[in-house]
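Re: Re: token formats

Sure, here are both.
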Amino acid sequence: MLPVGARERKAAVPQCPREHVTKPSFGSLIEFKGALSIVADDIDPAGFVTGPHRVDTPHPDLAQALADLWGRVTVAGGAVGFSPTDPVDRLREAATALVEDVRHRRAHLITLGQQHVLVGMAALRARQLPVRQHTGELVWLAVDPQLQGKGWGKQLHDAVVAQAQALGLEKLDLVTRSGHGLERFYTNLGWVERGRWPGAVRVAPGDDRDEIWLTRDV
């Protein structure tokens, strides 16, 4: 997205080439007894992964691909803002909204692919308020469960930082939740924990997590 006041520099972002407009193929995100379930794609943990790519022209099937990826991560216990008991439509609505924001330059999307399957994504929003136009938010970062632990999360992160630099942003922030060690992942990449809201994230009845706020300079 190109939010109000964001100034995009002419320099290219080498870590983040533009995405070719090709038709992706996706697995199936289904609803089973009120909970998310996934018919897994043929993802090879040792296979070739392309990207990170910056998405400039979203493919018509991108929203479904995002919902599928978020579903796989959620079912595996990952933290992408959803619960395994969420209806499938909730993921699709969020994915559709993100794609619309990308299309209208209100958000910037970075992706990873394997054999035309979406296996990783990160989303950046530059803020629009005049007093906050030098800041942005890392809204999402997700890697397919079968490809985690291989450095792809760091590559997505670094591509987001490069995109933030290209937009002229100076500071970034994000929120995540406790219980996954994500605060260690981010602090190892230069983020600083600024605060916690105990019990703000309810993953399931009786399973409350802290919301963690982190920031970093670009």
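Second one below.
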Amino acid sequence: MPVRDFEAMCSAMVLTQTTEKLALELEINGSDLIKNVNTGGSGLRLGGLTAADVRAFNSVLTSDHPEEEVLGTRPGKVASRDATLQTGAPIRWHFDDEDHYVHDSHTLTYDFPVPFVRTFSDDGRSEWVNILVPGLGRCQAQRSNLVFKDPVEVEDNPAGLISLTLHFMADEMASLNESILPLLFETIGPSLKSLTLNGPQGTIRQALDDNAIIRCCPNLLKLTLKRAFIHVQLDFTEYRANDTPIPELTFAWLDVAAFAKDLSDPSNPLARFAQRLRVSLNAFVVPPIEEEDDGEWDFPLHVNALVRMLEVNQRLEYFEVKSPRFNCLEDIMKFHRKPIYRQHKSLPIKCKTAFLSVVTSQRTVELKKRKAAEAHYVPVIPALDEHVTANIFSFAAFPVLRRAHYDSKKAIHFHHHH
């Protein structure tokens, strides 16, 4: 996508009222990095990224006036303001690579007023004013054609980047310095709530430290790690709610059986965090040590490890196996729709009220049809004090049912590991 089109699209997305999630696949060179900034959610493919590129990127994210950083314009003497561009007003839209207006280009006009125009780098006296037009991006308009809504300064710096996906390409990671990513996450990490790191583990072992990145993201709730054979999503919500530090994590990316063993250990923090898991059991996804005499790798070893994990792990909500073999289908699918120890939504008020009506029904009743003067009704549920009842309600929730899937298609191709 050309930079100009990206700029125009993002200027429109700022005003959309219906789009909740925007996904873009962008291959960004270092020189273009600061021109492609989306402060809501973003996906970046990192190539020959340098420390200077990251510092420039960070300066945009932390600036009170990021449009001035991106476009290289001087800070304005007049605060940025929102305005409506009058009907038929000429709009300068064509700028060269140095961000100078191309004077022999034609202007745009609309037969209706254009609302939500934002001024920037305004010296307060020039005839033509720098503006951001939704759907066009950086433009200029005559000051006399702008009807300003409010003279007070608008907030230019939003909450920051809350969702990010990074793709690590195998042929590009060799040039990525190991200090680059920590430098990047020092700035964007504090605002992130969701992060996806997509890349082959074997080529980025030295450049990517998952635990260091987690430490740079104190508000991170969801972390998705995608490697060649294993995709796992980690949920830190409970730890964040209790303000508990995330412990150090280890990942056996190249050994499915070892990874499953870690998820089977309740004392392993990985078993507590793992919410979704996808593994590939294609015949060539195997460490060389596990090859048998006939050249076939020990398929049952990995299947049995996964089955044992599903038997004891009570936190994994979604599990998927990719393999062309069907001889473990039944073993895996028997865990589909099995309840696990997770809760998302508490019981509704109606259910809680019904429970209270039973608990509080202990009373002495008269039995008119019997000769006894009175009898005591003993409820099935004994009397509970407020503390016990509050604890019951804190844990009461609809059960979460695990989803298990088996994919026999060879949709992903892997390489031998020697």
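The domain at 67-156 is CATH 2.30.30 (SH3 type barrels.). The mean pLDDT is 77.
- S.
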